[in-house]
């Protein structure tokens, strides 16, 4: 029942220390009390892989790698409380939409904005933030009676939010559980878990925590053998919060809050571990830059440096300059494209520029970002296929389905199939093909020119060839959908 803080600058060995301790305990006693390594969601796979593939331990039954949300799933499976239906982001949006439709007449500020694109998603994000920071609906309007002309809108907004948030909580109570409710349930169930009793907890990769996560960590400190937390900072803030200009302000505020919570709950605080080892940079100027970043007055670096600072007239010129630099490195310096990474802080402002510029410069790239599934070819194929049946083979859903390219035979080249489907689309538009004309067994006929005199003239070889191709394409589209 203790707290240990491990601190150090970036690359000082905090993660390595935790992993070495975990490996040592696994070698010493493979079937001992549980060891739980908690990291951010994006780090779980890599951390688990590093432990599982280490030749010294040959596996890890005793140790487990979790994020906070996965730990909640594990504990709630043991102690109960996970039987309620999980409410996804889409489910939350649907429920908020239902509440707004029912309460629309009572809304003051949101009545006109409720039907605008993106409004429901913004409300969902806001409710998620309220839950994450433990804000109850009634707290939104407590002490919020502002006066003055400019604050009327703020009062109306808070009252609308309070109404929607309260209705949302009433709707989900006892029936549904969303992603933010797991943390609250976890903090309540930690004391009932036999799995967590005498467990050793390691928390790494975070620089700040939400109030819900602080609640979980306090419960872990109370009921687990010990809790070790690693933070990236070169000094601990114990007796007072760090200065707002401190380079490691966020980590400092986190350490101050953790110590304060531990003292308030009577948790034993072990001697802190301060790692002084510096990252071994291959470039000396980078090492100097990291070490002296916040030194005032600035400490000059003596010698040649590979750090370049450039400026551009706009974002496109900036990306084009980077693209030229990448091409030069690959052509003249022996680099490969996969050796190069482009780090962008506000990626949303740049992605639409990066893609066309890198395509123009013929630079292969991968952008690490979450993409909506709504326009994914497979999702569109499923939606359009169902709409084809429900709308009785209307033109629009049929060709939306075809243009996902998931009906194309694997042996055919996509470019060639696109050309054929363009011919099919032109034919359907020209001849008014829809409904039963797709599903009847009668063959489609094709004449390049239609007129009364064609009744006596026979088809040309080119027309017969085109007719055969169109009927083959018709069968290729209709056969799997009808099945």
Whole-number mean pLDDT: 87
- At the fourth level of CATH, the homologous superfamily of the largest domain is P-loop containing nucleotide triphosphate hydrolases
Radius of gyration: 31 Å
- In the CATH scheme, the class of the largest domain would be Alpha Beta
Number of domains: 5
Helix and strand sequence: EHEHEHEHHHEHEHEHEEHHHHHHHH
What best-fitting shape do the alpha-carbon axes yield? globular
**How much helix, percentage-wise, in residues?**
40-55%
CATH architecture of the largest domain: 3-Layer(aba) Sandwich
Tell me the span between the first and last alpha carbons. Answer: 63 Å
Quaternary form: single chain
Describe the secondary-structure layout.
Blueprint: E1 2-8, H1 14-28, E2 35-38, H2 44-52, E3 63-66, H3 68-79, E4 85-87, H4 89-103, H5 119-132, H6 152-172, E5 176-178, H7 181-189, E6 200-203, H8 211-223, E7 226-232, H9 249-264, E8 268-269, E9 273-275, H10 284-291, H11 315-332, H12 351-360, H13 377-390, H14 395-402, H15 414-431, H16 436-439, H17 461-482
Give the gist of this structure.
With 483 residues, this protein is α/β, with parallel strands linked by helices.
Walk me through this protein's architecture.
The chain is α/β, with parallel strands linked by helices and 483 residues long. It folds into 5 domains: 2-81 and 182-275, P-loop containing nucleotide triphosphate hydrolases (Rossmann fold, 3-Layer(aba) Sandwich), CATH 3.40.50.300; 85-173; 279-307, no CATH class; 315-360, no CATH class; 377-482, no CATH class. It contains 17 helices and 9 strands. The strands form 2 sheets. Strands 1, 2, 3, 6, 7, 8 and 9 form a 7-stranded parallel β-sheet that branches. It is globular and about 100 Å long.
């Amino acid at each position: 029942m203790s707290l240990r803080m491990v601190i150090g600058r970036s690359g000082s060995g905090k993660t390595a220390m935790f992993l070495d301790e975990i490996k040592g305990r696994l070698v010493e006693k493979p079937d001992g009390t549980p060891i739980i390594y908690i990291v951010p969601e994006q780090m779980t796979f890599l951390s688990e892989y590093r432990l599982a593939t280490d030749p010294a331990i040959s596996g890890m039954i005793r140790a487990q790698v979790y994020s906070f949300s996965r730990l909640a799933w594990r504990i709630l499976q043991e102690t109960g409380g996970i039987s309620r239906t999980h409410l996804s982001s889409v489910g939350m949006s649907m429920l908020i939409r239902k509440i707004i439709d029912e309460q629309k007449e009572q809304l003051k500020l949101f009545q006109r904005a409720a039907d605008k694109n993106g409004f429901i998603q913004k409300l969902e994000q806001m409710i998620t933030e309220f839950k994450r920071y433990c804000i109850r609906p009634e707290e939104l309007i407590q002490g919020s009676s502002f006066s003055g002309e400019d604050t009327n809108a703020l009062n109306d907004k808070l009252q609308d939010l309070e109404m929607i948030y309260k209705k949302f909580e009433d709707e989900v109570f006892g029936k549904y559980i969303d992603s933010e409710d797991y943390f609250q349930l976890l903090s309540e169930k930690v004391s009932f878990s036999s799995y967590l009793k005498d467990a050793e907890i390691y928390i790494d990769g975070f620089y700040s925590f939400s109030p819900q996560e602080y609640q979980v960590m306090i419960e872990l400190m109370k009921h687990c053998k010990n809790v070790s937390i690693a933070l990236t900072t070169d000094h601990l803030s114990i007796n007072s919060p760090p200065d707002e200009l401190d380079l490691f302000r966020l980590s400092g505020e986190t350490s101050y809050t953790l110590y304060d919570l531990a003292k308030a709950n009577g948790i034993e605080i072990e001697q802190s571990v301060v790692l002084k080892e510096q990252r071994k940079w291959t470039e000396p100027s980078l090492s100097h830059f990291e070490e002296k970043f916040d030194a005032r007055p600035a400490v000059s670096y003596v010698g040649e440096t590979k750090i370049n600072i450039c400026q551009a007239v706009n974002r496109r010129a900036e990306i084009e300059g980077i693209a030229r630099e990448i091409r030069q490195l690959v052509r003249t310096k022996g680099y490969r494209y996969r050796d190069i990474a482009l780090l962008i802080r506000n990626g949303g402002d740049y992605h639409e520029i990066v893609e066309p510029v890198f395509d123009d410069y013929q630079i292969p790239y991968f952008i690490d970002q979450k993409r909506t599934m709504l326009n994914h070819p497979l999702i569109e194929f499923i939606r359009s296929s169902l709409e084809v049946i429900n709308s009785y083979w209307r033109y629009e859903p049929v060709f939306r389905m075809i243009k996902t390219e998931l009906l194309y035979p694997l042996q055919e080249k996509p470019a060639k199939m696109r050309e054929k489907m363009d011919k099919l689309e032109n034919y359907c538009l020209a001849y008014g093909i829809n409904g039963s004309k797709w599903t009847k067994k009668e063959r489609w006929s094709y004449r390049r020119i239609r007129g009364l005199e064609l009744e006596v003239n026979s088809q040309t070889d080119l027309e017969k060839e085109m007719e055969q191709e169109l009927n083959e394409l018709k069968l290729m589209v209709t056969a799997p959908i009808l099945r």
